[in-house]
Amino acid sequence: MQLSVKHLLGIRDLTRQDIQIILDTATQFKEVLQRPVKKVPSLRDVTIVNLFFENSTRTRISFELAEKRLSADSINFTASASSVSKGETLLDTVNNILSMKVDMVVMRHSASGAPHFLAKHIPAAIVNAGDGINEHPTQGLLDAFSMREKLGRLEGLKVAIIGDIMHSRVAMSNIYLLKKMGAEVTVAGPPTLIPKYIQEAFDIRVEYNLKKALQWCDVANVLRIQLERQNQVLFSSLREYSLAYGINKQLLDSLDKKIVIMHPGPINRGVELDSDAADSNQSIILQQVENGVAVRMAVLYLLSGGRELS
């Protein structure tokens, strides 16, 4: 099984078949993770650098664990503890790392397009772990994997993406992927947090009424309010947002069907999601975290390009 791409820069670059291959490979790796010995020698002698210019907990740990499970050699790099803080350019940083014979780079950066820039200038395979407000492809893949695992399909599934669509790279990756795999998508939230162009550009529904969106969908993927990326006031207060768009168990129980609740994390409990909803039996949030390791193992394994492994 071979991907049509050398890098994972975004879901928009993947074909439907690429997505299918990644999800099917992740299924095999999830079986590996259930064994007493959770390690395989698939990437022995492959060196991967985790290049994080933005804070991250779940994504960074998930990639590190995936690399260890594949027997890769991994190097962890954080910008605050490096020469970047002394003014070194991105390209110089990476070239210095590559001179140490690195095969793959997992990169998170606050600038949209940073991984694409690197992919044009260096020979190593690049995995985008989130770039600005552009994409977060492995999160989109693990969300899709979790939906397919829970509901048995993506084709024809009704998925509502709720919250701060404007600033969410997770939303973009989810929209690209779900549309390619034949799902129906609605975005819901305050008008100030939904880009005006999105309905026409992506051929998706826009809903400003939370209950209507929840009543329509099979899956609600709830996004964090990203205050750190908002350079102006886009709603009156977190309390007002919670009253209009926060999801709690009472609201879920008022629907005439059971829907699946997802969240890419970290959760602002009491804002977009109350604890009684986040921790309910309708939530698959912890399964998403678990599935993230298997999906990232699949991505790293497939992007190793059939390299000869000793």
Automatic annotation (TrEMBL):
<comment type="subunit">
    <text>Heterododecamer (2C3:3R2) of six catalytic PyrB chains organized as two trimers (C3), and six regulatory PyrI chains organized as three dimers (R2).</text>
</comment>
<dbReference type="GO" id="GO:0006207">
    <property type="term" value="P:'de novo' pyrimidine nucleobase biosynthetic process"/>
</dbReference>
<dbReference type="GO" id="GO:0016597">
    <property type="term" value="F:amino acid binding"/>
</dbReference>
<dbReference type="InterPro" id="IPR006131">
    <property type="entry name" value="Asp_carbamoyltransf_Asp/Orn-bd"/>
</dbReference>
<feature type="binding site">
    <location>
        <position position="265"/>
    </location>
    <ligand>
        <name>carbamoyl phosphate</name>
    </ligand>
</feature>
<dbReference type="InterPro" id="IPR002082">
    <property type="entry name" value="Asp_carbamoyltransf"/>
</dbReference>
<feature type="binding site">
    <location>
        <position position="139"/>
    </location>
    <ligand>
        <name>carbamoyl phosphate</name>
    </ligand>
</feature>
<feature type="binding site">
    <location>
        <position position="108"/>
    </location>
    <ligand>
        <name>carbamoyl phosphate</name>
    </ligand>
</feature>
<feature type="binding site">
    <location>
        <position position="86"/>
    </location>
    <ligand>
        <name>L-aspartate</name>
    </ligand>
</feature>
<comment type="similarity">
    <text>Belongs to the aspartate/ornithine carbamoyltransferase superfamily. ATCase family.</text>
</comment>
<dbReference type="InterPro" id="IPR006132">
    <property type="entry name" value="Asp/Orn_carbamoyltranf_P-bd"/>
</dbReference>
<feature type="binding site">
    <location>
        <position position="224"/>
    </location>
    <ligand>
        <name>L-aspartate</name>
    </ligand>
</feature>
<feature type="binding site">
    <location>
        <position position="169"/>
    </location>
    <ligand>
        <name>L-aspartate</name>
    </ligand>
</feature>
<feature type="binding site">
    <location>
        <position position="59"/>
    </location>
    <ligand>
        <name>carbamoyl phosphate</name>
    </ligand>
</feature>
<keyword id="KW-0808">Transferase</keyword>
<dbReference type="GO" id="GO:0005829">
    <property type="term" value="C:cytosol"/>
</dbReference>
<protein>
    <recommendedName>
        <fullName>Aspartate carbamoyltransferase</fullName>
        <ecNumber>2.1.3.2</ecNumber>
    </recommendedName>
</protein>
<feature type="binding site">
    <location>
        <position position="58"/>
    </location>
    <ligand>
        <name>carbamoyl phosphate</name>
    </ligand>
</feature>
<comment type="function">
    <text>Catalyzes the condensation of carbamoyl phosphate and aspartate to form carbamoyl aspartate and inorganic phosphate, the committed step in the de novo pyrimidine nucleotide biosynthesis pathway.</text>
</comment>
<dbReference type="Pfam" id="PF00185">
    <property type="entry name" value="OTCace"/>
</dbReference>
<dbReference type="GO" id="GO:0006520">
    <property type="term" value="P:amino acid metabolic process"/>
</dbReference>
<feature type="domain" description="Aspartate/ornithine carbamoyltransferase carbamoyl-P binding">
    <location>
        <begin position="6"/>
        <end position="149"/>
    </location>
</feature>
<dbReference type="GO" id="GO:0044205">
    <property type="term" value="P:'de novo' UMP biosynthetic process"/>
</dbReference>
<feature type="binding site">
    <location>
        <position position="266"/>
    </location>
    <ligand>
        <name>carbamoyl phosphate</name>
    </ligand>
</feature>
<dbReference type="InterPro" id="IPR006130">
    <property type="entry name" value="Asp/Orn_carbamoylTrfase"/>
</dbReference>
<dbReference type="Pfam" id="PF02729">
    <property type="entry name" value="OTCace_N"/>
</dbReference>
<comment type="pathway">
    <text>Pyrimidine metabolism; UMP biosynthesis via de novo pathway; (S)-dihydroorotate from bicarbonate: step 2/3.</text>
</comment>
<keyword id="KW-0665">Pyrimidine biosynthesis</keyword>
<dbReference type="InterPro" id="IPR036901">
    <property type="entry name" value="Asp/Orn_carbamoylTrfase_sf"/>
</dbReference>
<feature type="domain" description="Aspartate/ornithine carbamoyltransferase Asp/Orn-binding">
    <location>
        <begin position="155"/>
        <end position="303"/>
    </location>
</feature>
<feature type="binding site">
    <location>
        <position position="136"/>
    </location>
    <ligand>
        <name>carbamoyl phosphate</name>
    </ligand>
</feature>
<dbReference type="GO" id="GO:0004070">
    <property type="term" value="F:aspartate carbamoyltransferase activity"/>
</dbReference>
